[in-house]
Amino acid sequence: MIIPESSISQRTLFIGDIHGCAREFEQLLSELQFRKSSDLLYLTGDAFTRGPDPAGVWTLIRDTDAKMVLGNHDYRLPDRLRQHMSGTPVSKHWADHLKTLEALAPVADALIPWLESLTLWIDEPDFLLVHAGINPEKGLEGTTTDEFLVIRTWPPVEGIVGPRWHDAYDPTGKLVIFGHDAPGGLVIKRRDDGSPYVIGLDSGCIYGGQLSGYVLEEDRVVQVESSHPRSERPNNH
Ligand SMILES: [Mn+2]
Questions:
Q1: Hey, how many other C-beta atoms are within 10 angstroms of the C-beta on 188?
Q2: In angstroms, what is the span from residue 149 Cα to ligand 1's centroid?
Q3: Ligand 1 center to residue 1 CA distance, Å?
Q4: pLDDT tens track for 34-68
Q5: 170 alpha carbon – ligand 1 mean position (Å)
Q6: Could you tell me if residue 84 is inside a domain?
Q7: In the chain, how many domains are there?
Q8: Residue 152 domain-assigned?
Q9: N or C, which end of the chain is more exposed by having fewer CB within 10 Å?
Q10: Which ranges of the chain does DSSP label H, i.e. alpha helix?
């Protein structure tokens, strides 16, 4: 059956931290029945580092015209790529990302300007998209760059254990969609009327979890299983 284009309503799709998992990204797009002509796709950031196929992720981002907020890894990637391509050895901290840099070097001319055009938040009437979160007391306007990129706990603590920023977020506020918190896993918090006000989509695909997507208009989560073995998330990132 051919469905007339005019009868297809526009959807708003979100996908959590991809971290170089191009295969799962492609599978999830297929599960979501992504259509470029009628769907808007948003990513929570940290799309490239760690995983096996960052260049494949870049191809899919181009193919889907995905929008993305800046993640903590994306934030450093342009400089690290330039450094790598100029022959300067990357710092020890980035040594485990050498494969990522090697894989992305051939597409750096297009990728670097795209990365540098990304914003820390995307604020639309129906949602606020950020990588890690916002300051739950000061709100979007009072959130620092560091908080947008790496906040997990509130009150802030060293490490990853503790109440989350979204535990302190006012449910009457706008729906916030975020990633970054693989240890926290998939998060959906709902108001009394059932509508979501917080959605966390980093379910640790690169650590053997799932890659998670969300369809705003249908209030529906869609996940694909990771092809990676279960592993502990390193605590230093
Ligand atoms: Mn992150």
A1: 13
A2: 7
A3: 42
A4: 999 999 999 999 999 999 999 999 999 999 999 99
A5: 23
A6: yes
A7: 1
A8: yes
A9: N
A10: 22-31, 54-64, 72-85, 98-104, 108-116, 145-150
